[in-house]
Design a protein that fits this description.
3-stranded mixed sheet; mainly beta; disordered N terminus; Resuscitation-promoting factor rpfb fold; 133 residues
């Protein structure tokens, strides 16, 4: 988990890249943001008091997608021309998070919150090398 200082509210702090699948942001308004990855789906959940439910929204955007690296391994128990996927990987992502709210003058404000990195996982494919008789 990662805790951010309240200075984030007035743009005094630059968030570093995060490596992992979960983080917590503490703000002056009580809000908890949890990002997670399951398969090829990134989920953002926002927890807060009912009192603040209409005051802040969070926007996430895929900034960059990284393909799953593929590793091919020879397998002499599989016939030539056949393959077998032994591990299915997933793409990786860089995700930006912004919060949007209306200030005391009625202007909509969008502020950068964080940039998260979700690394790709490897796909392993076995390639047959066994000769057919």
């Amino acid at each position: 988990m990662k805790y951010f200082p309240n200075a984030l509210l007035n743009n005094e702090w630059n968030a570093p890249r995060l490596y992992g699948t979960k983080h917590v942001i503490t703000l002056v308004l009580p809000i908890y943001i949890k990002n997670s990855v399951s398969g090829n789906v990134i989920t953002t959940k926002i927890y807060s008091s009912e009192e603040y439910k209409d005051e802040i929204s969070v926007i996430t955007k895929v900034e960059e997608e990284f393909p799953s690296p593929i590793t091919r391994i020879n397998n002499d128990s599989l016939y030539e021309g056949t393959t077998k996927t032994t591990k299915t990987g997933r793409s990786g992502y860089t995700i930006s998070t912004h919060r949007v709210y209306t200030d005391e003058h009625g202007e909509e404000i969008t502020e950068y919150v964080d940039l998260s990195y979700y690394p790709p996982t490897e796909t392993i494919i076995e390639v047959g090398t066994k000769k057919r008789n």
